[in-house]
Design a protein that fits this description.
This protein is α/β, with parallel strands linked by helices. The chain folds into two domains: about 60 residues, Helicase, Ruva Protein, domain 3, CATH 1.10.8; about 200 residues, Vaccinia Virus protein VP39 (Rossmann fold). The protein is built from ten helices and nine strands. The strands form two sheets. The chain has a seven-stranded mixed beta sheet, sandwiched between helices. A two-stranded antiparallel sheet has the order 1-2. Helix 1 runs parallel beside helix 3. The longest helix is centred in the first third of the chain and has 17 residues. The chain binds glutamine.
């Protein structure tokens, strides 16, 4: 079968274009070269990845694909190149200045939803919201939740604002430091959720992360716990008695993160889908 027209690249040539891209990404040290090449091709051609074999390539498509592959080989995050990332049931806009929401954070959302399941109109605060991922997922999956998202970095907040606008979900955005949240909510919040920066200073990260993602979303002091300490303090003042906190941490920080919640009830370290310690829940 041929779906090509004049000036179009046929199936066999398309396969060669893809194979060359896979080689290039492999040489550049990209983790999942085939998946990334296919996603970039699907993006350029405007087709779902599963229909790539049938797609026709124009010369302009081939050129644009080549440019994107070159940027991916320079380790620009795939999600910055295609401009979106799937998170829970959302497609979120991301780009330079935004920390790319990670799959492991979806389990943090799952836990957050479980903790507010019995409350019809819970007040929820997402500290260090970045692109708004956690706040928006909670708002979408718990209709009736009143969600406040807080982000200090104005560039990241720009992505959150854009995602709130695009989804139309009821999330309020506060741009500022979490320790500066006005005191008028103190003691009235049902759930505080956060994926704060938690990488220890000097710890090596993959090039995609180290070169392109915002430093302020990643590093948090010599033990990586500086932001978690602030999150614990802010959560303690915001939450009503009986309210809960869900806080993501690094896979070797479980016990240390749990220790930060000394004096809270029901402090539990939970694992992500990969079986690694990933977040702590605690009740005020
Ligand atoms: N887990 C993240 C990473 O892989 C770090 C996330 C964070 O600091 N919140 O880079």
């Amino acid at each position: 079968m041929s779906v090509t027209g004049p000036g179009m690249t046929g199936c066999r040539d398309a396969a060669a274009v893809l194979a060359a891209a896979v080689r290039r990404l492999t040489e550049a040290g990209v983790d999942s070269p085939r998946a990334d090449a296919e996603q970039l091709a699907a993006y350029v051609l405007g087709v779902p990845r599963g229909r790539l074999v049938l797609a026709a390539w124009s010369p302009a498509d081939v050129e644009r694909f080549g440019e994107l592959v070159a940027r991916r080989a320079a380790r620009v995050p795939l999600q910055y190149l295609v401009g979106t990332v799937g998170f829970r049931h959302l497609g979120l806009a991301v780009g330079p200045g935004a920390f790319v929401p990670r799959p492991e954070t979806e389990s943090v959302v799952e836990a957050a939803l479980g903790l507010i399941a019995a409350v019809s109109h819970p007040r929820v605060v997402d500290l260090c919201t970045g692109s708004g991922a956690i706040a928006l997922a909670v708002a979408q999956e718990h209709p009736g939740a009143e969600v406040l998202a807080v982000e200090a970095d104005p560039r990241a907040a720009g992505w959150a604002r854009r995602n709130i606008g695009a989804t139309g979900l009821p999330v309020r955005l506060l741009v500022g430091r979490i320790e500066d949240i006005p005191a008028d909510m103190d003691g009235f919040v049902d759930l505080v959720v956060s994926n704060p920066p938690y990488v220890a200073d000097g710890e090596a990260l993959p090039p995609e992360v180290a070169r392109y993602e915002p430093v302020s979303a990643l590093y948090a002091g010599v033990d990586g716990l500086d932001a978690l300490r602030v999150v614990q303090r802010v959560a303690r003042r915001l939450l009503r008695p009986g309210g809960s906190a869900v806080v993501e941490h690094g896979d070797r920080q479980g016990p240390a993160a749990a220790d930060l919640f000394a004096g809270w009830e029901d402090v539990v370290i939970h694992q992500d889908l990969a079986g690694r310690d990933r977040y702590v829940t605690a009740r005020r």
